[in-house]
Write a structure and sequence with these properties.
two-stranded antiparallel ribbon, globular
């Protein structure tokens, strides 16, 4: 059971990290999704800070869950993020039958709310299982080294992918 909990935590951490990097690379797509949610212009005082901070928070929590998947703090933050995401998806689904959830940046395509809510609920349930099924005490040294090596390898790959794209082309919408 301990290994399964660690594997789920690592998978959720990887999910958050990749999603955060995608949002960091496509801030305009995230602005569009958030302006749909809040029914506000994409340059509003609520949306701009969220567009700048959410990807960084997501990446931080994801990396934390990958590297320290047996830590209680990582478990709490993962559950909180997925609960917030599910609440946002639910609010969007009440307003629209089809929308771009923006989970991994903006795909530009619309999906039915049933599939989006199913995916969000499945992720939330996995996060709750991860938080509720703690490991049996501190991990042995060999397991911890293996998990840390896998986590750092994943982080290095994510950074390499992120740096392969030119960040100078990433721009925010300007006020008109």
């Amino acid at each position: 059971m301990a290994f399964m909990s660690i594997a789920v935590g690592f998978a959720l951490g990887a999910w958050l990290t990749v999603a955060g990097i995608q949002k960091l690379l496509d801030p305009l797509g995230l602005q569009r999704v958030l302006s749909q949610l809040f029914d506000a212009p994409s340059t509003s005082f609520i949306i701009r800070p969220v567009v700048r901070l959410l990807p960084l928070i997501e990446i931080g929590v994801g990396v934390s869950a990958c590297l320290f998947c047996d830590a209680a703090v990582s478990r709490v933050f993962v559950v909180c993020l997925f609960a917030i995401f599910f609440a946002v998806l639910t609010a969007l689904s009440v307003r629209r039958r089809q929308f771009d959830c923006g989970c991994f940046g903006s795909s530009g395509g619309l999906e039915g709310r049933g599939m989006i809510l199913f995916r969000g609920l499945a992720a939330l349930i996995l996060a709750i299982v991860y938080a509720a099924a703690p490991t049996s005490g501190p991990l042995p040294l060999l397991e911890r080294v293996w998990i840390q090596a896998a986590g750092w390898s994943f982080v290095a790959m994510s950074v390499a992918v992120a740096h392969s794209r030119e960040f100078s082309s990433v721009q925010f919408e300007e006020r008109v």
